[in-house]
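Running co-folding for guanosine-5'-triphosphate.
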Amino acid sequence: MSKFGVIVMGPAGSGKTTFCQSLITHLQLNRRSAFYVNLDPAAEHFEHQPDLDIKDLISVEDVMDELRYGPNGALVYCFEYLMDNLDFLTEGLDSLTDEYLIIFDMPGQIELYTHCPYLPRLVKFLTQPGALDIRLCATYLLESTFVIDRPKYFAGSLSAMSAMLLLDIPHLNILSKMDLIRPQMSKREFKQFLVPDTTLLDDPRRKTKTSVSVDVHGSDPRDKNALMSGATFQRLNAAVANLLETFSMVSYLKLECTEEDEGESIDAILSHIDHCIQYHEAQEPKELPDEEFEEPQED
Ligand SMILES: Nc1nc2c(ncn2[C@@H]2O[C@H](COP(=O)(O)OP(=O)(O)OP(=O)(O)O)[C@@H](O)[C@H]2O)c(=O)[nH]1
């Protein structure tokens, strides 16, 4: 039997857990079942408690206490441990039916999406035909306020593309925390950021932003080697923007969070997720009551 899932990724604090909680609430309101899997071994506060929690296997806190690791090392250790104990996931998920949308809430450490091998292995395991065989879609969240600082926006978009290429499954990018950008930018102005392209580098409001010298190592500014000149920094931004434009792979959906917009926004994102995992196609065609098929009356 098919299983369906969505893996929620993004940098630290981008709103992953909040998005998962909104998704669960929305599914429940629409009489659909959610199964919430927390894979962040450092997560603490949940509105909806996880149905399966990596912390029941291992937690960052325990690793830091027992092995004296720092938070990032402990996170990596937890994922290595999960990879050695994948039965934990099989036991928790094997009996789920196609009624459920399985939501995987991931940690925010960026190294997990760039150079650690765990995520591709995890996705391969979850999607493996004949085993859990989950039809999986990835979502990658980025804070909408990044668009104010163009280099940050392009760097974030590059990390979204990196996650996309790493996992090789249907993928949606989402700009979160839209309430924080609204006071600073009109809907019309914001629209241009839904698809990154090189024209966005010409920021009329912030000419100085990309022309200052940037201390790339955070070290003593008197050390000339540690400084990247304005021109070099601009060329780097242009190269990143070009790369994104050439591959034309990154575009964004918006995650609104005000009371009046949130439902519609989550609904739209959920439709995209359903489409990516072909949820509707896999459901039995439902017989609609006769009145649904009544021909419209002629005037
Ligand atoms: N203003 C605003 N704040 C938000 C929104 N979504 C989340 N937050 C806040 O942003 C902070 C981080 O949110 P989380 O949902 O924990 O983010 P996360 O990506 O799961 O964080 P990590 O697991 O630490 O990587 C919290 O203080 C949230 O209350 C939003 O739409 N608007």
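Result summary
Confidence is low (pLDDT under 50) at residues 207-222, 291-296.
Strands lie at 3-9, 33-38, 52-53, 100-105, 134-143, 171-176, 214-215, 227-228, 252-254.
Job closed.
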